Amino acid sequence: MTERRKKAGRPVTARAAKAARRTVARPATAKKKAATKVKAKAKVTARKAAPKLSKEQAKVKKVLEKQVKGVSREIDKAEREAKKALRSAEKRYRGVLGQLKADRSKLQKRLKTLASQGESAFDEIKIGVEGAYKELSEAVVKAYGHFK
User: Fold this and answer.
1) Whole-number average pLDDT of the chain
2) Cα dihedral sign for 40, 46, 51, 54?
3) What is the C-alpha to C-alpha distance for residues 95 and 132, in angstroms, rounded to an integer?
4) DSSP letters along the chain, please?
5) How confident is the model at residue 136 (pLDDT cuts 50, 70, 90)?
6) For a tag on the chain, would you pick the N or C end, based on fewer CB atoms within 10 A?
7) What's the rounded mean pLDDT across residues 27-40?
8) Exposed, middle or buried by CB within 10 Å (0-12, 13-18, 19+), for 114?
9) Whole-number Å distance between alpha carbons of 93 and 141
10) Cα separation of 32 and 41, whole Å?
11) Predicted confidence band at 81 (pLDDT cuts at 50, 70, 90)?
12) Distance between CA 81 and CA 75 in Å, rounded?
């Protein structure tokens, strides 16, 4: 608060109080001081460690940096393509696996009906179950070989 306000007896406004708080100097913490010193040392070290390059060396450095950027782009592109192929393979895998599970459940249902049937129908149902089993086992082997 200013001397004039104190003398006049005016109340301090909220705006004036905020301004007064902002102007108070805050001590820096030890971490901030240490971080500032480390950054300053790093800059000085970098300046000392990086000697001036001749024009030819600078040109070669620029070419090498350009090559590194190009290789980096190619690596990123390969990564994107690999992720895309992986998603595609996973989608196919899920589809095949879903079909195999559906076939398995059908086979299990047929097996249950086999147990509930009498002897006369047993032979006919048994042949159907064996055929379904053979088809399913071949599909599993084929899928496993494809995704191996």
Assistant:
1) 77
2) negative
3) 19
4) --HHHHHHTPPPPHHHHHHHHHHSPPPPPHHHHHHHHHHHHHHHHHHHHSPPPPHHHHHHHHHHHHHHHHHHHHHHHHHHHHHHHHHHHHHHHHHHHHHHHHHHHHHHHHHHHHHHS-HHHHHHHHHHHHHHHHHHHHHHHHHHHHH-
5) confident
6) C
7) 62
8) middle
9) 13
10) 14
11) very high
12) 10
Picking from 34, 27, 146, the residue whose alpha carbon sits closest to that of residue 97 is: 146
Lowest-confidence region among 24-28, 99-103, 115-119: 24-28
Q: Which two tokens stand for residue 40?
A: 């300053």
- In tens, the pLDDT along 49-72 reads 567 888 899 999 999 999 999 999
